[in-house]
Amino acid sequence: MNRRSLLQRIALGAGALSTAATGTAETPAGPVDRSTYRNPVFEPVFADPSTVRTDDGWYYAYGTMDRWGDGEGFRIVPIVRSTNLVDWEYVGDVFESVPEWLERGDADFVWAPDVAQYRGKYHLYYSLVDAAPEYNDDAQGVGLAVADSPAGPFTDRGKVLQGFEVGVLNSIDPMFYVDDGTPHLIWGSFNGIYLVELTPDGTAPAGDPVQIASARFEGPYVEERDGTYYLFVSSGTCCDGPSSSYRVEVGRADSLDGPYLNRDGESLLDAPGSVVVDDSEQFGAPGHNGLAYDDADRAWLVYHGYERDEPGFIADGAAPRRPLFVDPLQWESGWPAVEGRVPSVTQRRPSIETGEQPRVAVPNVSASVTSVTPDERFSVTATIRNEGADGTAYVNLYDGSTVVDSAPAVLSAGETQEVSFETRLYTGGDHALSVGTSVDRASEPVTVTVDPRPAELAFDDVEMPDVLSAAEAGEFSATVRNVGSYEASESVDLVVDGSAVMSSPVDLDPGESTALTFRRAFTVADDGYQVDLVAGNVEERLGESDDDFYGRQDRLIQYAHTDGDEVTDRDTWINSLAPETRAHVDADPVEVGDGTASVDVTVTGETDRPLSLAGYTLPGGEFSFDTADEQDLVAATSRTLDPGEHTLEIPLPGEGSLSTPESYGTHEVTFDGDDSTAATLTVLAPPPASFSTFANTTADFGQLDGDYAVNAAGTDTWTFADEYGTLYRSDAAGERVDVEVRVTGQEETDAYAKAGIMVRNDLAAPGESLGYVLLTALAGTGYQLSWDATDDGFIDSGPVAGSEPDYPVRLRLEKRGSTFRGYYSPDDGATWAQVGSAVSVPSADAVQDAGMFVCALDADPSLVTFDEFAIRPR
Hints:
- The protein is mostly beta strands.
- It has 2 helices and 67 strands.
- The strands form 17 sheets. Strands 52-57-66-59-60-61-62 form a 7-stranded antiparallel sheet, with no helix packed on it. Strands 53-54-67-58-63-64-65 form a 7-stranded antiparallel sheet, with no helix packed on it. It has a 6-stranded antiparallel sheet with strand order 37-36-39-40-41-42, with no helix packed on it.
- The protein is globular.
């Protein structure tokens, strides 16, 4: 379509508007129920919708540039309009061709528009995208087009900002917002959500960007309600057909610049938002929303999604088939959500007033109950009388001043009808319910009191140690699930012998669950302990003492659901609290100058049952202790050790023979005593001369069975912690390189123990050096690309992808100037996946250090082996 035909179509008015694509694919036979509608409301494609309502009552919606599979090619920001948010008609396109103002790239697409009325005109902010042959995160930008009419024509004003100018990669998905008279832009896609003040004309930034949400999100939309700001965002994948994982989440704040928190009080800079709408059996990947309001001032979520019974892509395969959806928002204890948190199939239409209206009087209102529990359904009935003209009145049910439901009533002049609403309330206290229209209210409200009731919780997946030694901290874990139909805020307590010794708060929506773990150490007691988990209405009995048996405290472990005072479900284990000997050999290179290796032995158990250790076994024979430990208990070939920690010096076979190449590797040290136990002695060969080493924590470096080996402790590499051991090459990573390594094994000390690739201006300057990027395999979690986004010498940003690594795995960090991309292969190179999106690190030097690193997140080192480390110019 050329500009001339577009202008003709606009000038002809509604009667000549195209109906090639509308919200109704078929006209059903028989009577049509005009009080309801079905999702989706516009097909086949209308992604990333933005809506605006004009003074004459029309809604206009604007979508991402896409093909519709009708042979017309790309529609470059299509425009549709409706009088009721349900029945839409195509108007035209915003652009004839893709704007060409990008620097450092060539524009291919116009995505995710946002439209607002500002200073008497319609301002349309849009994403200009360079996506071919490679997606150019650095070049993407936000532009502005302006029109006098919502249907256009729009005049392109060009660039507002580009990613490389403001330091925000993938600068797309804009949202224009005026706060207290000052214009702002909110934008971002999987590299952080940012806020910046604009110049008064809205054409350029007037300050520095501020990050308000993490790289988990894209598609921001802000709405202020009663002094609270709500940040709607989308997470997951958008464009893989019905298998996409998109959903809408939300956080709220007291000011536009945050901090935005979820229902659990966690910042959206670090945590997910609270779910607004997620997928269902019929509809998939709902996301990238805006809001619109009907004449009853009720908010409607406008978004795109997929129909699972339709193809995932339109006929020519050029675009994901993402039609338009609308659903009313409910407000539950101050939090917005679509009912059931899934797209509706059929829904009551929005309240729209047209033409001469009836005038509704409401003589009386009654409720079927005077008190209810949260989320309990009840009915409100009202008698209405039309004192105006014939027509349809949209009658609303109000809770105070908030519309909670709406229904159309067709009334003749003077007619009286009865209307009824089925509803429910969520928050405790008195609620004044009234019925009326947006101009006619019930004179006398009816009061319904919501009586709070105890939380309905259940424990699942209860786990505890099978054997717990004296003074050893054991983990008691469970999944706490809200089996009720309303929000539950409770404290979960670990109770020992009737007293709460540890507590953890939980805040769960209906159906939600969370995993909790308590760590608790016990000393030996004659009568054992009673251990319980207690929360609200449920108690889990975890331990009950039994008689002493051969010096061991045998403990009957019971896991029980309770319903009131009645135990309804019970499982039983035996848990032993017993003397135990555990020997641990430090996995550092053995110092062989004195012909000995240091072995740390921990003896735990009853103080009247010491353990006798007679000797140990190493390759080459059996040996006896011949020096006293640090406590100087016994200097003899046989040793009696009381409970406690002891360091034993083991004479090595021969004269330091473990320093020879044939002794490099892993050996088992066996101790013979009342309880036989073994420890692993690892002897590392020296590291290659071509590598440098650095550590600011306990660490050793070398080679093990032909692999590179790093054995390092460390508290973390995050925010104000920067402890690690690294085996690296100095000044080896130029401006365009791929750094790749194969992680062959990782000794897990923590689920988030880190091992992988480190690139930095100076790897020997922790907490100071800039240009800091990590690509990490997290031992029990997944993969992470993280970087120093604030240029303070510490890692502070990074999305996590994938699942727990199954070694060997491969990592590849691509450096292109100051742009970095991370990839991982969970199947040893067969397939690769990207971690998050590209990130910009402007402080990265042209030439940097690069190497392998380990941080155990523990005081004890974690031994990690690598091979095939390479730095390849590109």
